[in-house]
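lol ok so funny story. i was supposed to be doing the assay writeup but got distracted and ended up predicting the structure for this chain instead. priorities right. anyway since i did it might as well share w the group, maybe its usefull for someone
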Amino acid sequence: MAKIPDISDTERWLLETTLKERYGRAPQLQLADAEIRLSPSDRELTGCPMVLWQDEQDCNFVIFKTGDRRYRCQFFYRGYQQYGTGVKEYDDLSECVVSLLQAQADHVVEERGDLESERSQRP
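and the output, tada:
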């Protein structure tokens, strides 16, 4: 299998621009590599470039580059609290990051709603 290309300057610019639009400033992006299974049936792990950032509420966001114009994403608060968008893989980085940010925003609203309904049910 061919090596997966690193995160390009254009991809990094797109991420920084999108995140600056969301947060009013671009959070510090960390570039790294991860080993993941590209397919559930894979026995071997594949090295993939990834980008990671954290928001002000200590939510961590990760986008894995799994091929040329192929991306996977998730957000998490702790290792056991991992969430995705419901889409296995994107072929457009912009769609990937916007969907990830929206999924996390929806999660926050849902969690707040659960807390508010729990409070209203208390005597």
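The beta strands are 30-36, 46-54, 60-67, 70-76, 82-83. The chain has a mean pLDDT of 90.
back to the writeup now i swear
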